[in-house]
């Protein structure tokens, strides 16, 4: 039924609420233009050596030499336009123009390139657009802006050569004697079967943590328990959207799905990584090995889903990303590809607010609605490597409801120091970051080699893709939402903890434990596969606009805003939501310092989600947020009706905290003078010394902001999501949520006392 379709913007007025719901995620794009300016200002600071000074106009947009061109279809072709027509249009437009191909998932849109234009420049080419537009077959033309997307991988301080195998290990690896030397006691053999015989398996602590290198035994993906149930990812394909995949690698070549692969960085079917002598383009190959490196072949380690197929989608290796490259990548072969894994995103500099553009957003929406023959593609996202100074809810890819964003823990259960936190993270897997350098992620590497030091949340996302591949083999009927529900219900707190004690594990209103850093915990492959086997697809999904505040309200560093909103969750309409999945707070605000604004959303059942944390490097004072959909997963399973609260406030560090953080000891003098100079430093973004205008600095510290809109979007089901599932384990999360759902049905009035009873 259409009601549960995602992002369906074209339905009639009857589905008004739903359309608004989807617009909320779309309208995030309205922001992109203004954020581009911020992004590019930041970028241009470091790019002076590349771009001539004349082009460094602050706030300017950069344009590539590619165009999206929409054509008129011939009558009776149902809007479908042949490739040949597009070739003719390019030819008529003149020398330099080339039709690169149809944009994935569209009937009538093509990507053109003009070889006579610079690959990037500071203004549009009006003549090119006019040339194309005057052709009668052309409906519309958009020159593609270029923007930055970066790989997410923590860069070790050591030179990269150290991250490859030592000569001894390499030879041992080659002669397959490494494993024989290290005879291991395996107390789980009877239960779980043989251990893989791959030389690097014992380094893959994320698959089997025996406490190697100071790790915590049994803190791993529990993947052997999944393999023991007979699944290894057969007939499931994961696409690695990255800088290419070395598909000739001995450990990958038999699992390579060439039909589902493509190179959008250079427009050909061979996504082989471009050579550089620093192995910069090893990222995709490393991610691929984590998912589906072959087992028992004596090469490197073992993939999480070692019989699954891997597709390479090369799309990160050009100087500038375009909307079309992203859209093509995420919409490529949606029936051959089950899972798309992305370990990249907008720059994690703690000052960027950016997300998918229009065509990319449409591709994702098409993927979840139509991909996998209607079950929906699974998009897995690395939550980001910006560390505590960034918030992944400012990354529109990770924060999307249609992606599963994955954070990382290190081998003893702490968060990694590069982890960002946000309320949209659904779960976690493992990556590097412990003191011992041998605790990176062991996987395949370029040119037939192996590495032990793949890193960052980059390394975490593919592990999740592998676990989902196992679940999909166990039950190919799982929809994109089933995978999210399974993730919530089977992820474990295990021994994950916040190294800095900022974020505690908290129970939501239906008894699900979550953590602002780790989501619902670490993926448990064994648990997910066994629940997948008995799973019944969750009921239809609805979108309800729970309410909205649009009066402009001022807030300062002295007084924040506490806004309440009472909702019946669209009761009595055809979009009534009774059981929550995702919740979005769509917010428009500006402030004198965006990075100092913090936002909290409190559900009627009392769950408090931090939907925006302080970002000390974000000194934006102009753009703020425009209809930005802050998302939380923390209220999963709760009832949405009742009173929601939004808290808006400044978190400006006090003098002490400021000096502690930046380690600057103020000059001698009176206390007042010291305070003043510290404030002044804080106010001028790069800590100017000397002639600081102290009055202005103080004024800057008197932060003000204006909240202009808060719209509450509720997404979830009308029917209880797990009613058809049998409870096999009374201590499982499934049992807890089901029980909570029977204690107080959504049609009863729940009192606060009742709520706190569970
Ligand atoms: C593999 O998956 C395809 C659909 O993707 C399905 O048609 C086919 O039957 C499956 N093959 C096996 C052996 O399960
Ligand atoms: C993107 O979509 C928004 C909202 O639908 C629209 O206003 C905007 O013009 C679109 N931008 C482009 C470049 O097509
Ligand atoms: C922020 O919004 C307020 C209220 O609409 C407006 O007066 C002010 O000029 C805005 N500030 C900026 C920097 O745009
Ligand atoms: C707010 O700003 C004023 C002006 O600089 C400052 O005196 C005051 O301490 C700030 N208040 C808080 C709570 O930080």
Short précis:
The protein is an alpha+beta fold and 758 residues long. It folds into four domains: 39-147, 2-Layer Sandwich (Alpha-Beta Plaits), CATH 3.30.70; 151-483, Peptidase S8/S53 domain (Rossmann fold, 3-Layer(aba) Sandwich), CATH 3.40.50; 542-652 and 704-722, Sandwich (Jelly Rolls); 662-701, no CATH class. The protein is 24% helix and 21% strand.
Describe it.
- The chain is of the alpha+beta class and 758 residues long.
- α10 runs parallel beside α11 (358-370) and α12 packs parallel to α14 (525-533).
- The chain has four domains: 39-147, 2-Layer Sandwich (Alpha-Beta Plaits), CATH 3.30.70; 151-483, 3-Layer(aba) Sandwich (Rossmann fold); 542-652 and 704-722, Galactose-binding domain-like (Jelly Rolls), CATH 2.60.120; 662-701, no CATH class.
- A hairpin with a 5-residue loop joins β17 (506-507) and β18.
- The chain has 19 helices and 27 strands.
- The model is unreliable at 8-59, 156-182, 655-676, 682-695 and 749-758 (pLDDT under 50).
- The strands form seven sheets. The protein has a seven-stranded parallel sheet, with helices on both faces. Strands 1, 2, 3, 4 and 5 form a five-stranded antiparallel sheet that branches. Strands 19, 20, 22, 25 and 27 form a five-stranded antiparallel sheet that branches.
- The two termini are 34 Å apart.
- One 2-acetamido-2-deoxy-beta-D-glucopyranose is lined by residues 552, 590, 621-622, 706.
Kindly state the percentage of residues in helix. 10-25%
Whole-number tally of structural domains: 4
H/I helix tally: 19
What would the CATH topology of the largest domain be?
Rossmann fold
**Which regions have little confidence, pLDDT < 50, spanning 5+ residues?**
8-59, 156-182, 655-676, 682-695, 749-758
Which structural category fits the helices and strands? alpha+beta
Overall average residue pLDDT: 84
Strand content: 15-25%
Order of strands in the sheet with most strands: 8-9-7-10-12-13-14
The CATH homologous superfamily of the largest domain is termed: Peptidase S8/S53 domain
Biggest sheet record: 7 strands, parallel
The rounded Rg comes to 26 Å
User: What is the class of the largest domain in the CATH system?
Assistant: Alpha Beta
The coarse silhouette is globular
Q: Could you give the count of β-strands?
A: 27
Bound ions, cofactors and other small molecules, one mention each: 2-acetamido-2-deoxy-beta-D-glucopyranose
């Amino acid at each position: 039924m259409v009601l549960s379709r995602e992002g369906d913007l074209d339905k009639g007025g009857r589905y008004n609420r739903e359309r608004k719901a989807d617009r909320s995620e779309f309208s995030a794009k309205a922001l992109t233009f203004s954020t581009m300016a911020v992004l590019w200002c930041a970028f241009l600071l470091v790019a002076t050596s590349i771009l001539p000074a004349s082009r460094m106009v602050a706030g300017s947009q950069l344009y590539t030499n590619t165009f999206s061109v929409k054509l008129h279809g011939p009558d009776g072709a149902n809007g479908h336009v042949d490739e040949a027509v597009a070739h003719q249009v390019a030819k008529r437009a003149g020398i330099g123009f080339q039709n690169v191909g149809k944009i994935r998932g569209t009937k009538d849109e093509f990507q053109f390139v003009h070889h006579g234009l610079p690959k990037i420049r500071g203004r549009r080419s009006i003549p090119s657009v006019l040339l194309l537009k005057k052709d009668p077959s052309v409906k519309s033309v958009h020159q593609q802006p270029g923007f930055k997307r970066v790989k997410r991988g923590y860069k070790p301080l050591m030179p990269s050569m150290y991250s490859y195998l030592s000569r001894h290990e390499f030879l041992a690896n080659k002669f397959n004697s490494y494993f024989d030397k290290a005879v291991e006691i395996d107390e789980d053999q009877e239960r779980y079967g043989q251990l893989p015989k791959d030389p690097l398996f014992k380094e893959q602590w994320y698959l089997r943590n025996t406490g190697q290198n100071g790790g915590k035994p049994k803190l791993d993906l529990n993947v052997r328990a999944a393999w023991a149930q007979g699944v290894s990812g057969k007939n499931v394909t994961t696409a690695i959207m990255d800088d290419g995949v070395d598909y000739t690698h001995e450990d990958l070549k038999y699992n390579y799905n060439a039909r589902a692969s493509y190179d959008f960085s250079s427009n050909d079917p061979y996504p082989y990584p471009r050579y550089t002598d620093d192995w910069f383009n090893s990222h995709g190959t490393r991610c691929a090995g984590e998912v589906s490196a072959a087992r028992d072949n004596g090469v490197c380690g073992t993939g999480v889903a070692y019989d699954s197929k891997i597709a390479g989608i090369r799309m990160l290796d050009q100087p500038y990303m375009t909307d079309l490259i992203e859209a093509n990548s995420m919409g490529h072969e949606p029936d051959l590809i089950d899972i798309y894994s992305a370990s990249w995103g907008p720059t994690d500099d703690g000052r960027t607010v950016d997300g998918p553009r229009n065509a990319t957003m449409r591709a994702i929406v098409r993927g979840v609605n139509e991909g996998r023959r209607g079950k929906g593609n699974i998009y897995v996202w690395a939550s980001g490597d910006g560390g505590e100074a960034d918030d992944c809810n400012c990354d529109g890819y990770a924060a999307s409801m249609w992606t599963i964003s994955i954070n990382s823990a290190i081998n003893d259960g702490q968060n990694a120091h590069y982890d960002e936190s946000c309320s949209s993270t659904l779960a976690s897997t493992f990556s590097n970051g412990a003191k011992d350098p041998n605790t990176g992620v062991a996987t395949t590497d370029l040119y037939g080699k192996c590495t032990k030091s793949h890193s960052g949340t980059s390394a975490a996302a593919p592990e999740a893709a592998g676990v989902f591949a196992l679940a999909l083999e166990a039950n190919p009927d799982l929809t994109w939402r089933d995978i999210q529900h399974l993730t919530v219900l089977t992820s474990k707190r295990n021994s994950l903890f916040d190294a800095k004690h900022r974020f505690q594990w908290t129970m939501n209103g239906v008894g699900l434990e979550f953590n602002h850093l780790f989501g619902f915990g670490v993926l448990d492959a064994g648990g997910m596969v066994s629940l997948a086997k008995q799973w019944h697809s969750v009921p239809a999904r609805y979108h309800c606009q729970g309410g909205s505040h649009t009066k402009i309200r001022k807030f300062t560093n002295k007084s924040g805003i506490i806004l309440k909103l009472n909702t019946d969750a669209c009761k009595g309409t055809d979009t009534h939501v009774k059981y929550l999945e995702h919740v979005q707070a769509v917010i428009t605000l500006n402030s004198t310092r965006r990075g100092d604004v913090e936002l909290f959303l409190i559900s009627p059942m009392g769950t408090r989600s931090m939907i925006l944390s302080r970002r000390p490097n974000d000194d934006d004072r102009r753009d703020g947020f425009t209809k930005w959909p802050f998302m939380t997963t923390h209220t999963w399973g709760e009832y949405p009706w009742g009173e929601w609260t939004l808290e808006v406030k400044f978190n400006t560090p006090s003098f002490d905290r400021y000096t502690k953080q930046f380690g600057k000891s103020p000059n001698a003098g009176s206390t007042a003078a010291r305070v003043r100079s510290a404030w002044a430093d804080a106010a001028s973004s790069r800590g100017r010394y000397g002639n600081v205008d102290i009055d202005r600095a103080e004024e800057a510290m008197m932060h003000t902001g204006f909240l202009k809109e808060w719209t509450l979007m509720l997404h979830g089901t009308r029917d209880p999501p797990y009613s058809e599932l049998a409870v096999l384990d009374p201590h499982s999360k499934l049992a807890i949520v089901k029980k909570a759902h029977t204690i107080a049905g959504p049609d009863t009035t729940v009192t606060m006392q009742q709520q706190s009873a569970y």
